[in-house]
Amino acid sequence: MADVNPFESFQEQVDDAAAYLDVDKGMLDRLKNPERILETNLAVEMDDGSIEVFRAYRSQFNGDRGPYKGGIRYHPNVSREEVKALSGWMAYKTATVDIPLGGGKGGIIIDPSDYSESELERVTRAFAKELTPLIGEDRDVPAPDVNTGQREMNWIKDTYETIERTTEPGVITGKDLASGGSEGRVEATGRSTVIAAREAFEYLGEDIADATVAIQGYGNAGWITAKLVEQMGATVVAVSDSSGGIYSEDGFDAVAAKDHKRETGSVVGFHGADEEITNEELLQLDVDLLVPAALENAIDAEIAEGVQADVISEAANGPITPDGDDVLEQKDVLIVPDILANAGGVTVSYFEWVQNRQRFYWDEETVNERLEDIIVEQFDTLVDAYEEHDLPNMRIAAYVVAIERVLTAAEQSGTWP
Ligand code: NAD
């Protein structure tokens, strides 16, 4: 994985798009930097009675279009710069899909596999206590990200509600159904990734049902992408996780590969696939659709040189470095950018927040239909911007559309005092 500062990549992406917009220099500076960042050190008692300190962050990037919105990541590589970048991507993601929310992100520097469930609960509740003054359904609404899920969201909601002496399920999204979660949330990120990919093939005059697919990362985003793209008739030929990848020229059963990962911890060793491959080999396979669904900076310029896919749908946030982007643009690869492709997660989080506030819940079909409408409509908006302004690629088109939306709201708010 390339050693690129993700915040610098993010700022470069905003600059690239701003070149096509009439933006005041000072305002551009505002659009490239977070409004505020919480940095906190959580002192937590371990099972053996010792105390361990965990550094944690929450970046509130932009709230001009609504409450800050974005996930909480648990990973040893979490850093202030990474959280800032991820919060910026969230601000432009909520704007790309035009939902009334801003952008934020949080993270704890921790490898959760090293800790017991009760230790993780205490770490999570300690973070929730620090977050409580900053979050709320009208302030900042966190959600899951890498290595966090319904369990952590339920803990955060309970800690917040206990301290605030209230019932406020909309303070966080990605909760379990019984705690106020939404139907369709677990599958939402993979679902938007495949809807966006399907639209991209259609734009090229092709049918996704004929596509071969490689997916890097087999967690929530990657595995659901595999399942849904198979349901559309496409052939999944390769998948991977942090331990390595598997490949079969004629495809394999993606659901069975997931079962194998659930049982053993990795897709590696799955008997339904012909061979084992590295993550680098997976990214450079001769496939029609490539889905990076692991972490940022997976595809740098060197790897991009070897990419053979026609379409990339970015399930992960920031999986391609700016240098990698340049190479892929020259190779005419159609990239559906993360801020649209993986926006299903935040879109259904928005639906969850709406349902929590109304105390009125929708069925899964309604959630999926509304998600599909938004992704298809905004894909078309990006294509219109791309063609109308003769933009170099779809990522710049997405940022042009999103920055304009944030800028309009920021200008209407004005500066204060
Ligand atoms: P996850 O923790 O469920 O899965 C991550 C997967 O990536 C795991 O299979 C892991 O083994 C694999 N991985 C980690 N490092 C790798 C490496 N170096 N090479 C190959 N595989 C590697 O996380 P997730 O929720 O699926 O998130 C994946 C990406 O999708 C992240 O970039 C995240 O920000 C993005 N995303 C997730 C959601 C969501 O709702 N889950 C929403 C939007 C964006």
From TrEMBL:
Query: Per its UniProt entry, which superkingdom is the organism in?
Result: Archaea
GO MF, one term, reads: glutamate dehydrogenase (NAD+) activity
Active-site residues, record numbering mapped to chain: K105
Task: Supply the PANTHER family for this chain.
Answer: GLUTAMATE DEHYDROGENASE, GLUTAMATE DEHYDROGENASE 1, MITOCHONDRIAL
What sequence ranges are listed for the domain Glutamate/phenylalanine/leucine/valine/L-tryptophan dehydrogenase C-terminal?
A: 182-414
Q: Which residues bind NAD(+)?
A: T189, N220
* SUPFAM superfamilies with a match to the protein in the record: Aminoacid dehydrogenase-like, N-terminal domain, NAD(P)-binding Rossmann-fold domains
Positions of substrate binding: K69, K93, S349
**One of the protein's GO biological processes:** L-glutamate catabolic process
Task: Give the record's keywords alphabetically.
Answer: NAD, Nucleotide-binding, Oxidoreductase
Cite the record's note on assembly.
Answer: Homohexamer.
Which family does the similarity line name? Belongs to the Glu/Leu/Phe/Val dehydrogenases family.
Site (Important for catalysis) residue list: D145
Q: Can you say what this protein is called?
A: Glutamate dehydrogenase
A Pfam family: ELFV_dehydrog
Gene3D superfamilies xrefs: Leucine Dehydrogenase, chain A, domain 1 (3.40.50.10860), NAD(P)-binding Rossmann-like Domain (3.40.50.720)
